[in-house]
Every structure is written in structure tokens, then in C-alpha cells.
Amino acid sequence: MSDARPRARPRPAWERRFAHVLVLLDAGGAAVGLGVGWLVASVTPAPVAGTSAWVTVGLTGFGLVGLWALVLWFSGAYDMRFLGLGFEEYKRVVWSAVKVLAVIAIAGFMTDADPPPGFVGIVLGVGLLVQLVQRRAVRRGLHRLRESGQCSRQVLVIGARREVFELVEHLRNAPYAGLHVVAACVPDDPDGTGPELPVPALGDVRDPLGAVEAAVVAAGIDAVVLADSHTVAGEVLRTLAWQLAGTGVQLVVAPAVTQVAGPRIVIRPIAGLPLLQVDEPELSGGQRILKESFDRVAAALLLVVLSPVLLVLAIVVRTASRGPALYRQVRVGRYGREFTMLKFRTMVVGADEQVADLAHLNESDGLLFKIRDDPRATRSGRWLRRHSLDELPQLWNVLVGQMSIVGPRPPLPSEVQQYGTDAHRRLLVKPGMSGLWQVSGRAELSWEESVRLDLYYVENWSPALDAQILFRTVGAVVRGRGAY
User: Fold this and answer.
1) Domains, the chain, ranges and CATH?
2) Alpha helices, DSSP H, located in 44-87
3) How far apart are alpha carbons 221 and 390 in whole angstroms?
4) Which DSSP helix (H) or strand (E) runs through 156?
5) What is the pTM assigned to this prediction?
6) In 3-state terms, what secondary structure has residue 1?
7) Fewer Cβ close by (within 10 Å): the C or N end of the chain?
8) Beta bridge partners of 224
9) pLDDT in tens, 353-375
10) List of E strands, 257-337
């Protein structure tokens, strides 16, 4: 690339609008929290009395909202690197509220300020909840826009032809990520043995600097992704980083390690080399004990609270068709141990014996057996399946330690007998009532995609990932998409 680097381009208009919308929504969430705090302060057993007291409450409230806005800004809650994907955005919003609470507590201790009991906690708690719900809604809207081809970054990919092809296909299957590949820089393929790229090649990988310059000028590139570091010399990569500095064009290096979440990846500089260390998956230890405890307690509470609902559903199943209310089936749990899984019966009695006769109607690939309009399903069963209500009896399996609330899909013994080496890693953790498979499409997923999601969960489990899946489960169950 020549010394005359492309000038820094202004931030895309959609990014500015997106950030402005988030600022207004966060301010609105804080205002809702402030309003609820004032309301509670006015009706408590010891209500605020006197003009001066209300002035103090008002100043405290408005000061709290202003401080909150500043902390959100300086915490990177509006940084596009963290918006729209992953858990980092939500984590920064939550920690901003914690920081504000800490500042208020220190300031109150130093000034002997005495706001109404619980006022600050109510404002922060309600405001934070509203902000998280709003950000989730905005994220869904952003994903829909990206899937329609809007609000995405134009990307140039550099690397070997095979690696570039795989990365382009991966990004095309995840349009919500907002990375739209428009060009590539790959080695020449005179023999035609390499895969045909779905994007034009703007230059040879032996001259990535010239290719990037041409792409930035001609195609309006917003990001450069290095798909294969072996094809680009370290000196060239360093020069490329220098040339892109100040232009607004991001440089991204895709590691060879895939399906590993950020918390497990640590970059350790040793002797001037940035070495990528991949920590082992968290399959035991303190966090696992915490997960087990949460599962048992939550299952016990839900069984008690939902007992009337379970009784009504059992009556509906029994009256809708002949047979028992519960369906028992052998599934494979952690370390390959078999157990009897409970569900509300959604099919006619003897449905398992009809599988061979209906094999020609199977709409799934791999080891799964799925029929969208299954003739064995009862009328009540279709409704139960659509909203996953048939799975509620599995709370008993969770209570006795056979399943988890969140985990991989519980497989059949016949499926496990045909597992490959990679799929066997699904058995390192307990199967779950919900999981990435449920919030990502359920029965609409291919066998390969189902295995990939389950392996990702096993390799990258964390309490934060469980919380994210549970949050998404509510929407998946209400919409009923992919359930049949």
C-alpha cells in the first residue's frame, strides 16, 4: 500500500443512529426506574414529607440518572464492537449499574446523605431491567435488518483459497453478525483445483497491501479479515496494521481454533510473540457444583409452583386421546448412563412401533427422525409440543440429578450407538430441558448443526451462557418456531 493511505472515513450513518437510539432508550429506562422510585417513596410507611425532602429526592434522582448515563458511556456500552452479538454488551450494562451503586454508596457515606429507604436500589433495579429488555429488542431488530442486507460491514478476506472459502460460507450462514464479504485476496489457482469463491478476487495474497488499498478505495471496505495467517508474512501483517491505522478500517485475525468462546481464549505475550492459549472447558469444579445446586433448587420450586398446571395438562392429555398422561422413554445422560425421561404424551399409544412404516416421511437428516405433520401426533400433543409444555415433567429428571435445566439435547440409545468421536463429547455433561438447540431452531436444525451447537455448549459452558440461553428460551417457547 502506498504512503498515501485512505483518509479516515466518518462513522457509518447507521452506526450513529443505532448508538443514538440506545442512548435514548437507556435514558428512558433510567427515567422509568426514577419514576418507580419516586412512586414507592411516596407510598412507603414512612413517606417523604416536606418540600425540602422532595427537593433532595429529586436532585438525587436526576443526579443518579446523569451519573448513570456517563458511566454507561465510559464503560463502552455504546461501542459497536460489543453491540449486537454475544453477552459482552449486557455485561457492560449490568456492571455500569453496579458501578453507579458503588459511587452512590461512597458519596452517601462521605456526605451523610439519607435518601428514602430503598430509593437508589429501586431506581437502579427497575432501570437496569428496562434497559436490558430494550437492548434485547433492539438487538433483534438489528439482526432482522442485517438478514435483509442492511447495517453490515463490507469485508475483504485474505488467506489461502480453502480457508477463505470456509470463512465466507460461515459468515454467510450468520448474517446477523453483520460481516458481509464482498471481496477476497487469495493465491492464484492455475490448475483450478481449489474451491470456487463466491466473491470476486481483487488481488493476489502475495501482495495484500496493494489488494487492500484497491479494495478500500473501490469497494468501500470497512474491515479486513485475515483467514489464514500462514499465507501472510508477519512483517506484511504488521505493515498492514500500520497502514490501516487511522482509516476507520478494522483488521481482524481469524484464529485456527474454532468453536471456542472468548472466555476460554487468553492471549499471552511471550518473548514478543502473542501466543493464543486455549483453556480447558469447565467440566467440573466450583461452577459445576453451583450449576447442580441451582438445577435442583429451581426444579423443586418449579414443581411446587407449577403443580396445578401439570395437573391440568395431565387431564387434557388423558381426555384428548386414549392412553397414559406421561410418556416414558430411555435416553442417554452424562457419561453414557441411561435413564428414563418423562414427558407428557403427545402421540397415540404405540407411536414408537410405527417409525419403520413412516421412515419415508422423515424430513430430517443424520440420526434424527422428524415429521412436520406427524400423523401419530394428537391434537393436544401438537399444541403441547409447539410451546414445549410436554417437557415440563422433565423437571423431575432434573430434581433427581439425571438432567439439567440447560444442556445438550438428550439423545436416544440408538443415536449414541452411531455417534462419531466428536458427537460423543456431548455426553460429558448432563442433557438439558433447554439448550442452544432449542433457542436456535429446534426441529428445523440439521443433524450437523445440532451436533455443532451441543459441542459448542460443552466446550464453552459458563453460568453466563446458561443465563443467556434461559433468557432466549422464553421467546422461543412463546413463538413456538421450529417445534413439531
Assistant:
1) 13-147 (no CATH), 153-254 (3.40.50.720), 286-479 (no CATH)
2) 51-74
3) 49
4) strand 153-158
5) 0.64
6) coil
7) C
8) 156, 251
9) 666 666 666 656 556 666 666 77
10) 265-270, 273-278, 326-332
